[in-house]
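User: I'm writing a short methods note and want a consistent example. For Urea ABC transporter ATP-binding protein, I'll paste the sequence; you return only the C-alpha cells, no commentary, since I'll be parsing the reply automatically.
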Amino acid sequence: MTGDSLVVTDLHVEFSGFVAVGGVSFDAHAGEVRFLIGPNGAGKTTCIDAITGLTKATGSARLGETELLGRQVHKIVRLGVGRTFQTASVFDELTVLQNLDIAAGRHRPAFSLLRARRGIDPSIERALEETGLTGELATPAGILSHGQKQWLEIAMLLVQDAKVLLLDEPVAGMSQDERTATGELLQRIAAKRIVLVVEHDMDFMRRFATRVTVLHQGKVLSQGTVAEVQADPKVQEVYLGTAGAATTAAMSVVPTVLDGPLASSPGVVAATLHGEED
Ligand SMILES: Nc1ncnc2c1ncn2[C@@H]1O[C@H](COP(=O)(O)OP(=O)(O)OP(=O)(O)O)[C@@H](O)[C@H]1O
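Assistant:
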C-alpha cells in the first residue's frame, strides 16, 4: 500500500437535508502544499470533518489503497491522518515537552513513556527541530505566542508520525513573520507527507500553495495551480460578478486576511485572489 496520496471522490455531506458538500473531488500528494479555499460556508471544514470521520459522508476518501469513509475517528487517526482545528487544542498548563510526551505516548506502552521522560524521545527531538520549538521545551504551552501554539499542534502530529496533516486555518491571527515561518514549515513537512491547508488568507495561499481547490457553495468551482485558479473565468465570474475590473481595483485596499463577515463577500475574495498585497 502506498499512503502517498489522498484521493477524495464525489464527497457528499448533508445536514438535515441541507447539502453542505455536494460531490467534491480533489486529491493531495506528498511533496506539495495543497490548499482548499473558498468563502465562509463553502464546505471546507466539512470536507476535513468528513475525511477524519467526525461527520458522516458518502463518496470516497482514500489514503493510498485504504478507504477512510465509514471508519471510526480513532481508527482514522491510527492510519496516520492528523488534523488541527481553527483554535489550537494544546494543554496550556503543561510544558511543550509534556504536550509532546502525551502526543507520542498515545502510540507507546506506559513503560516507554516513562523512559522518554528521562531523556527526550528522538521523535520529539525531530519534531521540535522541524517546528523550531527546541528552545521552548520547558515553556508552558499557555504562554507560547499564537504562532508557536499552532506549531506545537503540528509538532504533536509529527511525533504521532502523521502521514496526512489537515490544517484548518493554521495562520489565522498570526503576525506576518509567523505566517512566513509557518509557510516555510509547511513546505518542509510536505516534502514527505500529505499536507492539506484550509485557509482564508489569500496572500498566504499565493505564496505557499502548490495546488489549490476553490470551493463555492459545497462544490468545486476551480482547481489547479495558483496561476490557473486566478485566471479561471469561473472564479472571476462567481467572485467578481459583473463589476469586473472596477471591483478588483476598488478592493485592492482590502486586507488579504479574510475573516468574519468580510470573508463571505465574493468581491473581497476575488480581489485578494488577484494578488494585491497588504
Ligand atoms: N453540524 C452542522 N449542522 C448544520 N449545518 C452545518 C453543520 N456544520 C456546517 N454546517 C453548514 O454547512 C456549510 C459549510 O460549512 P463549513 O464550516 O464546512 O464551511 P467553511 O467553508 O469551512 O466555512 P468557514 O470558512 O466559515 O469555516 C455552512 O452552511 C454551515 O452552516
